[in-house]
Every structure is written in C-alpha cells, then in structure tokens.
Amino acid sequence: MLINKKGFTLIEFMVAMSLVSILSTMAIGNFMGSQKRGRDVRRQSDLNQYRVALENYASNNQGTYPALKTTLVPDYLASEPIDPQGGTYRYASDLAKYVLDSCMEVQKKLYQICSNGKSGITTIDCSVAIDSNCDL
Q1: Domain spans of the chain?
Q2: Which H/E stretch holds residue 37?
C-alpha cells in the first residue's frame, strides 16, 4: 500500500532555512555598508558647503579666511552643517590658508579640503590633530 504524502521533510526544511539565513545576512551586511558610504558622501558635501562659504568670505575680506568656521553663520551659511553621526567637521586656519576635514567611516581616514584647491582622502589616521597645512 503506497501512501502519497505531500510536504517537506525536516532535512529539506532545514536546508531552505539555512539558505534564507545566509542570504539575509549577506543583504544586511551590504545594506550597512551602503549606509556608511552614504554618510561619507554627506560629510564630503557638507565640507564642500564650508569650502564655498570660506571662499566667499575671503573674497569679501581681502583674501583672508576666518579664524573660526562659526564666523560663517549666518552671512555665508544659513546654519552650520552637522555630521550625520554627531562627529565634528574640523577647521584650521592661519588666516592665509585653511584646512577642513572629517573622519570617513568606510576608510577610517581623513577627508580634507584645502585652500590650495586640493581635496580627497588622506593617508592620515582620524586621531591626528588638525593644523592649517594641507596633507594632500
């Protein structure tokens, strides 16, 4: 007598669940990485806003840059950009030149914008103190 049963065996069910868990783990990992990259892009955009405001300030002040970046608000920036995770955008100036930087999450290195027009990821660790010399 042949009994025709429909359904999954325990082994088939466990294999399917294992595959689902592996695929979901990979998807979550990729999602977290894309969030970090998105925050890094926002940091770069915020620093570029500062760059534009600093250059406008210098053009109105005989080519000198402010000693503090907070001087830019409200005349050159509506409000100070805020790091997506509460970090700081660092600024150093000797009035003739400036360096802006922020720590990137993905590379764990500093992204710098300098008054000489250079910008990008440095080889410098995020714990280094900022000065007005461009590291690029």
Answers
A1: 10-125
A2: helix 10-60
